[in-house]
Amino acid sequence: MFRKLLIANRGEIARRIVRVARRHGMKSAVIYSDADAALPYVREADEAWRVGPAPARESYLDAAAILDIAAHARVDAIHPGYGFLSENASFAAAVAKAGFAFVGPPPEVLARIGDKSAARARAASAGIPVLPGSGEVRDERSALAEGERLGYPLLVKAVGGGGGIGMARAENAASLAGAFREASRRAQSAFGRGGVYLERLIERPRHVEVQILADGSGHVLHLYERECSLQRRHQKVLEEARSPLFCEPSARSGSAALERRLHAAALDAAHAFGYVNAGTVEFLIDGEQLYFIELNARLQVEHAISEQITGVELIGWQLRIAEGRALDITQEEVRAMGHALELRILAEDPDTFLPSPGLLKEYQEPTGEGIRVDGGYERGNGVTPYYDPLIAKLIVFGSDRAHAIGRARRALADFRIEGIKSNLALHARVLESERFWRGELDTGFLTSLAHERAAAAGT
After folding, report:
1. In whole angstroms, how far apart are CA 292 and each of 119, 264, 266?
2. Mind spelling out the 3-state secondary structure of 322-387?
């Protein structure tokens, strides 16, 4: 068993892993940048080590500095959380070479999954439906040739990307060159690799993902699905488990068969990639058709709602699997009970989605039955512009979807944030929407909600 764990991340996820590690009898060491020295996770860990200045490339993305800290702290394992180095095969290999356990998939699995274009091809060869798309395109001329073959509209996507970063839309051949340059530039900046590929764009599909858990002996489970269609700039804002597609009263005729196909496709993907540890298989659903997007080889921001409905603690199992233990639960024993929502509370303008860094002059989290807040900040902390604007995750559980929504509305009304702008008002508008209550969701939901609001205001 691991005695001490290094958490190579920050904010709410580092804080969460510290608490889980403690419950499993492990000491925790965390890293922090100069910008994060006053955050709660630094104080709550058993040890805290400065990793560097505020910019992520000089701190949380500095693999050499992190490994040096791991050696000095005498840890057994490194948990990367999500984002930063969590899906970096080279980092995972360096961790293993240095004699530490990596809490995540083995380096060879990360390498297999990391090239999104090659991953699509592997999924297709395993019989999993994928959208029409290309391999990696290296120049504008090749992109135009592929665009003519595939048809429009298209998404230009980063080969090594994730989290909705490095995507650009191309409506036609005239706009493809600009979209290619934009996506490539963003990909190079975010991931250090400018490669992109093309994928046929479906207008307003549902974005649904399946949580998987796999041990080193090939035993794979799914923990049901999460609805992730509420997005801005291809990044999620509100998620729920399970999807309203498969829950009464909004479940439609034939949904049970679609759900079985969705879960089976996720398990097939896990086997096709030889997956180990916790991961998420993402799909688009268009009518009765489902399409594989990618396999996220890490813990997801929204993992907590899967924990809420199944009672399976994902971070705990991540640690056990990294220790070499086998899953001791069967698929039949994994039951979905009730309904859970996760509202990402972000430091950003609720109308423009522009970041709003600054000092949290007031910060008070809601409490009560069925309410859980995974927060990364306290009153008096500064939200800086260097990292993702996530302040906290408001996680609400209810006996059914209507119950969960009602609790979420009350919890949201009790959430207090002052000193910066936040998206609390956006979440309030979503929870008041009749279409949301009916479960009529798609990836254009927030855009249409904004248009409805503008029309009602006469602007």
Report:
1. 10, 12, 9
2. HCCCCCCCCHHHCCCCCEEEEEEEECECCCCCCECCEECCEEECCCCCCEEEEECCCCCCEECCCC
Chain-centroid distance of CA 437 in Å reads 24
Residue 320 structure tokens: 């056990």
- What is the mean pLDDT of the segment spanning 369-398? 97
Residue 167 tokens, joined:
């995507």
Does residue 430 contact residue 439 with C-beta atoms inside 8 Å?
A: no
The C-alpha atoms of residue 409 and residue 403 are separated, in whole angstroms, by 10
Distance from C-alpha of 92 to C-alpha of 85, rounded to nearest angstrom: 8
Percent of the chain with pLDDT over 70: 99
Span 58-68, average pLDDT: 98
Instruction: Tell me the residue length of the chain.
Output: 459
357 neighbors 384 (Cβ within 8 angstroms): yes
- CA-CA distance, 65 to 123, in Å (whole number)? 36
With contact defined as beta carbons under 8 Å apart, do 442 and 253 qualify? Answer: no
Confirm if 365 and 390 have CB atoms less than 8 A apart. no
Q: Give pLDDT tens digits for 76-102.
A: 999 999 999 999 999 999 999 999 999
How large is the angle between the packed helices 107-114 and 116-125, nearest 10 degrees? Answer: 90
Distance of CA 178 to the CA centre of its chain: 28
129 — pLDDT class (breaks 50, 70, 90): very high
335 is an active site residue: no
Burial class, 281, CB count within 10 angstroms (exposed 0-12 / middle 13-18 / buried 19+): buried
Strands (DSSP E) along 104-173, which ranges? 133-137, 154-158, 168-170
- Exposed, middle or buried by CB within 10 Å (0-12, 13-18, 19+), for 362? exposed
> Distances in Å between the alpha carbon of 431 and those of 238, 352, 424, 438?
10, 19, 11, 11
For the chain, the first-to-last Cα distance in angstroms comes to: 61
Q: In this structure, is the dihedral angle defined by the CA atoms of residues 371, 376, 382 and 388, taken in order, positive or negative?
A: negative
Q: How far is 432 from 178, CA to CA, in rounded Å?
A: 38
Cα gap 81→216, rounded to integer Å: 20
Instruction: Give the strand pairing for 154-158 and 168-170.
Output: antiparallel
| Residue whose pair of structure tokens reads 């191309």 in the numeric block | 170
Transcribe 87-108 into DSSP letters. T-HHHHHHHHHTT-EESSS-HH
For residue 137, the cross-strand partners are: 196
Whether 135 shows a pLDDT value over 80: the answer reads: yes
Catalytic entry in 16, 298, 320, 401: 298
